[in-house]
Amino acid sequence: MQAWHVREGEYVLKGDTIITIREVKEKYFDPQLLQRLQEQLNAKISSLDSKESKAKALQRQIKALRATLANKLEQSKAKLDAEKVRFQNAENQYQRNKKLFEAGNIALTKFQDIEYKYQGAQADYLNAQIELSRVEAEYLDKISKAESDLNSTQADLFDTEGSIAKLRNEYANMQIRNERYQILAPQSGFIVKTMQAGIGETVKEGDPICTIMPDVSDLAVELNVKAMDVPLVEKGRSVRIQFDGWPALQFSGWPSVSVGTFGGTVKVIDYVSSKPGEFRLIVLPDEKDEQWPKQLRVGSGIKAWVMLNDVPVWYELWRQLNGFPPSLYEEPLDEVIEKKDKANKKEAEDEV
To answer: Do 241 and 339 sit in the same domain of this protein?
Structure first.
């Protein structure tokens, strides 16, 4: 940790610098590390260009060797054909003169001269065959060597491309790392508490730096009710809330005469228990009631009463004295009692 730019209790906007940190790993000590990486990347790119040029030159060389091989083979085959014809003529002449010599029709010196020419033609024909094989083998060897060099160059090309991709990734990561030497506020709010106090302390990945309370204008209350009371609560129920620090006087079952309490409405009822035997309620301010105090802080204690159906005073007293559960009727109790009385009277008339 190099420098703090805020203090506890200060208000920060999203994007404000909270703290500046510096490196502790030797790998990142070089202040010109990005420049060094860029130089390495440029060198690799230049090497890649050279290898691409070499690969293209080898491809041209292989193409030229193949063309030369084809021309040389044509020349050698043409010479071989010519020597073959010459050899066949010499052989025919030799066979004819051999018979004449055996019959005593030609002199020995003339026959020896014809025999010498025949042997020369035979040797030239064999040499032409050998030359054809030599030319083909020579150029195939050159082509194979060039293709081997081309394959090696292409392998170096792929290796260099991989090194370039790795360097680019390292360069991009280093750019992002440099931008994160300043830790910025992720949202607007108040600095509540700093977890790392002193300059020079070492922080690791995932270590908390400070706590920011979001700057929100929408407030809500979290209540916990017993499991046995959950069936009595439904969304939209009115709630009377007493905040810690605000004097209040609440009459159970008589919210109209309560003093110092604030209105709310049940917005959320959890489907699973948050604590053993308890369920959580989320209560929002009642827009029709008095506004909640602006001085409220997150985490303040409260006491709340969820309002059920309106009933006559005598019924509530009677219920309390007898220990009966609260009313679950959705319509006013007077109308329900009146309907029951009418139904009882009708049954009595039918029986008469």
So the answer is: yes
